[in-house]
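Subgroup meeting minutes
Present: P.N., E.W., G.H.
Scribe: E.W.

1. P.N. recapped why we're keeping a running log of single-chain structure predictions: easier to compare across weeks, and new members can see raw inputs and outputs side by side.
2. G.H. added today's entry (637 aa).
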Amino acid sequence: MRKRNTIISVMLALILLLCGCKSGVIVQDEVSRRASTGESWTVMLYMCGSKLEEENNSASRVLSSLAYNLPENINVIVETGGSRSWDISDIYSDYQQDFIVQKNGIRLINQSSSKNMGSPDTLTGFLSWSIENYPAQHYMTVIWDHGGGPVGGVAYDSNYKFDSLSLNELKSAFGSLDVKMDIIGFDASLMSNIETASALSLYADYMVASEDIIPSDGWDYKKLFKYLSENPSASPAQVGKEICDGVSDNAADAEEYFVSMAVTDLTKYSKLAQTFDSMAMVMADAADTYVNLRTLQSSLNNLEYLGGNSQWEGYSNLIDTGSLADALENRSERAASNLKTAISDAVVYKKTNQYRTELSGLGVFYPSDYKAAEISKYRDICDSENYLEFIEKTCINPGVEDRRYNYEDSAAWQQYNEVSQDISIDASYDPSGTFSMTSNNIDMFKRAGVNYYMYNKNTGKYVFLYRDYSVEFDSAQKGYSHTVKNKIPMLGGTPVSMYRVSSNKDYDVYSIPVIQSGELKNIRMVKVKTGKKAGTYKFLGVWKGVGKYTGMAEREVTELEAGDVVTPIYEEYGQDTSKYVEGSAVRMGIGTAVINEKQIKDGEYALTYTAEDIYGAEHTSNAVSFNSKKGRITSSK
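Output recorded in log:
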């Protein structure tokens, strides 16, 4: 009889495996709870499955891990929705379902027809119902899904055209409640920023969120449940610390770079807002005059960017606020110092990594990609009028409608406009190996870089390799100079395209676009700038980037391991940057998943200068070609 039962069990397991659905996660009966351990908490997990569930079963993995023997004073309520499919049997895409966490799984306690999880009414309904049925002394809301930063929002519902909760909608949802949250947390990317803090400052004491991409496994809920059960009287800040540490512990090696969790005391937001606005006033004033704007923009050349920041990754348009303050110290030491102090006071705990120890814990919108729609959306959520003035005065995209501040009215634009029409830049190469650029209006530029191109015999065109910012400015010659290198970065011996996406005092961060398993992805690398390892590279991980139209940031960052195959892609010189050509496939062997600077391969190459002006427009010089043979560089005739 036992043998027969074993066979039946194996057959049922195989059927479930073939169906691809998890069972045993949802339980039917209420079970007894441990005795109360003290003060009461209700944790409300708003789980919008979205593409994370549809493509990776990520939400189902979290739900499968939630079983915990909670005491009577701790209730954890979960609402599911937002996905077109679920990996767990009895969770359905055409229903909103509410579950309570028990020691043996999650139990269904409420169900209704599907609702848009990108709607504030859906969030309000879930929170109100949970608070009414599970009243407590302390409340925590956790929003789980993709995040898109202050402009993109959070919780992208696949069933409703990826509609998401905007910051104003979050404000509306929490403002409709009769209670204030102890903690509002985001198990989502790019949500720890000044704008989100502003939206939530009246409705919660603390915010717990990731400044950059959150690792794919996100929060360690069992660690959180254990801590709350054993420390129900802990302060929200202490609970937030446990959450941040749990995310760091959960992160895979490839995700280490992105760990950037922070606990923000929202009761300190008023002071933070004042100091940020004072800093923004310095920026807005500088935008009015040509010389001041050039000086200001030059100081902003090296900022710590968050999320995507290349044409292949997409653009999150977020920087670290502390990085911004550091860059502006020369402009106004007092304003920058006051802002850094206010951030330090508000961010009571942060968890970062070895590559980004200087992250402040709070990001801020800063457009490197001036899309008209994003600028217009930002106008509705920006809490600093001075910062909005700076953004609009430096954004020369004519598609931005209903401006409050017109760049054409500033003296800086008037002077710029006079000279920009007749600008000329000329590049030349001399036998000593120096590549130079001169211009009749050199003061118009905030920086310049040298683009390296490689000749592709298959297409008969040059393809982009990387831009090198190691140039010297020569005021007497009114130009820049660069020493041409006979070594270039290679992946496993293959030259690749590299885009610098961020920078701090210790590291430059690069992104390499590749095709892997039929999908466009990006290899993230850091280049060490200081110490004994200066000039060396370290592989971080492979990442899809951010949605072109939604702005939602992918969470999964994977290793590049021996046996993996990637195909580098390249932008052709002078072509539409949305198109690319594929190179030769590279199979990773043991130890080849690294970037090394190796002797340049024999062949023909080309150089151009790209000079960026004070309004972010790029100006490209003429191309100069050179040959390489056994590492020796000679000018092409």
